[in-house]
Design goal:
Elements lengths: L1 H34 L6 H8 L4 E6 L2 E10 L7 E9 L5 E7 L5
Antiparallel strand pairs: 1-2, 2-3, 3-4
Length: 104
């Protein structure tokens, strides 16, 4: 019985660490994708991604452009994913952030 509990613990630990590695890899991929847009003009981003879902003026001529997606991976109830870019008045992308899970 003790061996069975140890085996169960090891399998659970392996599954959890595998999920953590997968999440870390997805986060790294997202960061690389989002970082690649910093310094580019929003016209390039819109050409690649289509028009943003929202554009919000945040003062000083800057805007936040948001792309929002509904996703429903297998076994999930679904969730919203947000990709946001802060943009200078001349259209140059300054920074980014995201909300939701890591899929780019």
């Amino acid at each position: 019985m003790r061996r069975l509990r140890v085996l169960f613990f090891l399998v659970t630990l392996l599954a959890a660490s595998s999920a953590a590695c997968s999440t870390a890899a997805a986060t790294a991929k997202l960061s690389t994708t989002m970082d690649s847009w910093v310094g580019h003009n929003t016209s390039e981003l819109v050409t690649a991604w289509g028009p943003p879902t929202e554009s919000q003026d945040i003062g000083g001529g800057q805007r936040v452009l948001t792309w929002r997606y509904w996703t429903k991976p297998f076994g999930s109830d679904g969730y919203w994913v947000y990709r946001m870019f802060t943009v200078k008045p001349d259209g140059t992308i300054l920074s980014w952030r995201w909300k939701g899970l890591q899929q780019p």
